[in-house]
Amino acid sequence: MTKYLATLYLIILINFSVAFANITNKTTSSEACIDGATIVLSFGFYYNSCPEVEPIIFSWVEKAVLDDPRMAASLLRLHFHDCFVNGCDASVLLDDTQNLVGEKSAAPNLNSLRGFEVIDAIKADLEYVCPQTVSCADILAIAARDSVLLSGGPGWEVQMGRRDSSSASKTAANNNIPGPNSDVSTLLSKFQTLGLSLQDLVALSGAHTMGKARCSTFSARMNNNNSNSPDINLEFLQSLQQLCSESDSNTTLADLDHMTPSTFDNQYYVNLLAGEGLLGSDQVLLTGSEETREIVESYVDDVGLFYEDFKKAMVKMGSLGPGNGESGEIRRNCRVANGFNS
């Protein structure tokens, strides 16, 4: 890594220590008990075993985002889709094998998840520097944080020590990951099942301030343009219809936040107030519940409040332990469990 990157990352680490002192003073570790085995997450987990881990990941994420700004949202989404299925165990990265059906072909992931090659490159670098030390699950968590930071959003200190699963669940991916047309009660049910709150739901939805979605994921939203509700923005919905009617709706992409699509900010919530949430599951945060509407409005008024709640929710989500009874492993290749490596 260049001297410039090393200096930049040192500055970021100093900022972390100041900005997140309150978090680290309250809790330095969290535990997940799995069939009698305890997995402890902690700050500075690789301080002795692989001190280069965060600078290495940061440099790769920086390169990926410079090459393709959309990659920031893609890497952040990988972490979400991992944690919502049996905890943060890198199961989302596993390829199908003769003996395993992975999660990549699940409906929420198929032809949608991106960034696997970036994770591969990070893992290969870390395996060279610190062989079989850093888990793929921790790489996902750190890369998600760095993606937000490099897009102008807040940073936070990532707890580490996750283990990688040797199995995956396509069924759980289909059932647990919130769909793009979910109503508030459905969204909240999926979040509460994981121990996440209504506040966490609205804060984490703010990740949609970056990234894109295919026309097929918001087709129901486009067709909901005959309502007399004051929250319906006909001009916006008609612009989506025009976009998706002019080309292949299976490949055409729209920005989740059409105002600042590559910047992590609170514009997503501003868009909701204007009736310009792209997905149905976005706009219902304003229209489907007075509680969620109040939180949305508070984030519009105070970007700092959104950032604080988002950081806390990311740490909370990132501590979700696997629910498959496995204590896990450190994969040598993030796409394949060690037992299947050649």
TrEMBL record:
SUPFAM superfamilies reported in the protein's UniProt record: Heme-dependent peroxidases (SSF48113)
EC numbers: 1.11.1.7
Family: Belongs to the peroxidase family. Classical plant (class III) peroxidase subfamily. Belongs to the peroxidase family. Ascorbate peroxidase subfamily.
This protein's name: Peroxidase
Main location: secreted
Cofactor: how bound: Binds 1 heme b (iron(II)-protoporphyrin IX) group per subunit. Binds 2 calcium ions per subunit.
Chain spans, region Disordered: 160-179
PANTHER family: PEROXIDASE 40, PEROXIDASE 72-RELATED
PROSITE patterns in the cross-refs: PEROXIDASE_1, PEROXIDASE_2, PEROXIDASE_4
Highest taxon, organism lineage: Eukaryota
Keyword Glycosyltransferase attributed: no
Signal peptide stretch: 1-21
Keyword Oxidoreductase: yes
Cofactor(s), by name: heme b; Ca(2+)
Keyword list, A-Z: Calcium, Disulfide bond, Glycoprotein, Heme, Hydrogen peroxide, Iron, Metal-binding, Oxidoreductase, Peroxidase, Secreted, Signal
Biased composition (Low complexity): 166-176
Native species: Penstemon davidsonii
Residue stretches making up the Plant heme peroxidase family profile domain: 40-338
Alphabetical list of Pfam families matching this protein: peroxidase
InterPro entries with a match to the protein in the record: Haem_peroxidase, Haem_peroxidase_sf, Peroxidase_pln, Peroxidases_AS, Peroxidases_heam-ligand_BS, Secretory_peroxidase
Reactions catalysed: 2 a phenolic donor + H2O2 = 2 a phenolic radical donor + 2 H2O
Function: Removal of H(2)O(2), oxidation of toxic reductants, biosynthesis and degradation of lignin, suberization, auxin catabolism, response to environmental stresses such as wounding, pathogen attack and oxidative stress.
Compartmental location: Secreted
